[in-house]
Amino acid sequence: MKTAVITDSTAYIPKELREKWNIHMIPLSVIFDHETYREEIDISAEEFYEEVKQRELPTTSMPPIGEFIELFEKLAKDYDAVISIHLSSGISGTYQGAVSAGEMVDGIKVYPFDSEISAMVQGFYALEAAELAEQGVEPEKIIERLNEVKKSIRAYFMVDDLSHLQRGGRLSSAQALIGSLLQVKPLLHFEDKKIVPYEKVRTRKKAMNRVVELLAEDANSGGEYRAVVIHANREAEALEWKSELEAQFPNVEFMLSYFGPVIGTHLGEGSMGMGWYKK
Fold it and tell me: What's residue 181's pLDDT?
């Protein structure tokens, strides 16, 4: 059985990796003043962060269901099945769009997968799926492996300004207000598919150190790990952090990634995160 792998643009998998592993990408969009830009196609992360300095923050939108149907029908010509991996259904309707479109197409079996997370941590699922698909592993077995990955996956991030999350409805007004009043940098994570505070931390440096402690709890318990440092237009800081982590954790394979336009709209420039899972 030949299986295709799709993820959406919020996984921010580098184009060369998508091409290497034959991962198909469906874009979400940002909308500036009624102008729609598909991220990773019409607008890059660098262009986005320049744009938001001069304009109002955009709104974001999920892919139209017709785009899913079109892609599934195209893949049906060469594949028997497709695994469609998407950002958390708790913050976007994208996963549900894949579910609905999958029920409307003939000739290909669609296996939608809710990553319950986003950014390159979501991308880890797509890479795992693509490697197995290339080996000819049955789609049901690939889904089993993704659910296995889900047990060890962790991701934490901090933002400079909670108002972006609150404005986009991804964090409650009360949580954002408390954070702003106390001048704290809450460490955030996904819980039950939603973004919620994990711990309250006073400074950015302390928040980053706390993430390292959480990584150490897992990485020092044995085994090989894959991890990613993710930044919102702070590449130099992220590279420095990655370099320090590589020296500290020889059993962890680190990547560098970014929060692109859609996720960057909700987190804001300057956000930093890290995610990992056991190989």
Answer: 46
Per-domain boundaries in the chain: 3-28+63-151, 154-278
Q: CB–CB of 108/75 below 8 Å?
A: yes
Region of poorest pLDDT, from 34-48, 104-118, 201-215: 201-215
Cβ neighbours for 180, distance < 8 A, ≥ 6 positions apart: 162, 163
pTM above 0.90, yes or no: yes
Q: Candidates 3.40.630.30, 3.40.50.880, 3.40.50.10170, 3.40.1350.10; correct CATH number of 3-28+63-151? A: 3.40.50.10170
Q: What is the DSSP string of 200-262?
A: --SSHHHHHHHHHHHHHHHHTTSS-EEEEEEESS-HHHHHHHHHHHHHH-TTEEEEEEE--HH
Instruction: Give φ, ψ of 134 to 5 degrees.
Output: -65, -30
